[in-house]
Amino acid sequence: AQSVTQLGSHVSVSEGALVLLRCNYSSSVPPYLFWYVQYPNQGLQLLLKYTSAATLVKGINGFEAEFKKSETSFHLTKPSAHMSDAAEYFCAVTSSGNTPLVFGKGTRLSVIA
Amino acid sequence: ETGVTQSPTHLIKTRGQQVTLRCSSQSGHNTVSWYQQALGQGPQFIFQYYREEENGRGNFPPRFSGLQFPNYSSELNVNALELDDSALYLCASSLGLGGADTIYFGEGSWLTVV
């Protein structure tokens, strides 16, 4: 079975500071990994995905994530936080074939002016 | 804009009632999945349909059922509603059966059971 652990249910950063949201996964087969963002009262928007090509994945809105197999991690980063980045962020894992997305519990990002 | 639309956006039902939630996927997307997101939690997989056949199910009881239609629309039906069914229900679509496919989510339907 696959699983995702997101360390820190709430992360607070100052505007302009580095954003680091942590995600560790468990999978017995090669994983595909995703980060989604959810703004208040909205659905999920895909930020980026890892599908076994480059281990450093660049996404929308200046976010990127690095797949580290040895650490089973897929942490999300952004060099400089913006107020508009305040939202809930979900890491998810799946694999090839007919397997659904398995989500972490999410990390709420707050950005302080 | 993901091309996935859901209706209704909000609804309130009474315990024991039945509800139908609807989703319209992107044209050409053969796979539709439904997820339940309780308050403060990540989405949980309910089931998936591929070309109108159920193709995988999460840990949800049989009172959760679905349909997928040839016109890329789908339904989630929940019978005998319980208070714990209160949640955001998300519809998601993709071209194939997951894996590397990008999965597009709708805005969701907020269900409150009282």
The number of helical elements of chain A comes to 0
What order do the SSEs of chain B take from the amino end to the carboxyl end, as H and E?
A: EEEEEEEEEEE
Mean pLDDT of chain B: 93
Beta-sheet strand percentage of chain A? over 45%
Main sheet: strands, sense, barrel of chain B: 7 strands, mixed
End-to-end separation of chain B: 32 Å
Approximate helicity band of chain A: under 10%
Radius of gyration from the alpha-carbon trace of chain A, in angstroms: 13 Å
Question: How does the overall form of chain B come out from the CA principal axes?
Answer: globular
Main interface by residue count:
A-B, 27 and 29 residues
The end-to-end span of chain A amounts to 41 Å
Helix content of chain B: under 10%
Q: What is the β-strand count of chain A?
A: 12
Pick out the low-confidence regions of chain B. none
Please count the helical segments of chain B: 0
Structural account:
The complex is a heterodimer of chains A (about 110) and B (about 110). With about 110 residues, chain A is an all-beta fold. Chain A contains no helices and 12 strands. In chain A, strands 2, 5, 6, 10, 11 and 12 form a 6-stranded mixed β-sheet that branches. Chain A has a 4-stranded antiparallel β-sheet with strand order 3-9-8-7, with no helix packed on it. A two-stranded antiparallel sheet of chain A has the order 1-4. In chain A, a hairpin with a 6-residue loop joins strand 10 and strand 11. The model of chain A has no long low-confidence stretch (mean pLDDT about 95). With about 110 residues, chain B is an all-beta fold. In chain B, strands 2, 4, 5, 6, 9, 10 and 11 form a 7-stranded mixed β-sheet that branches. Chain B is globular, with a radius of gyration of 13 Å. The interface of A and B includes residues 90, 103 and 105 of A.
Summarize the structure.
The complex is a heterodimer of chains A (113) and B (114). Chain A has 113 residues and is mainly beta.
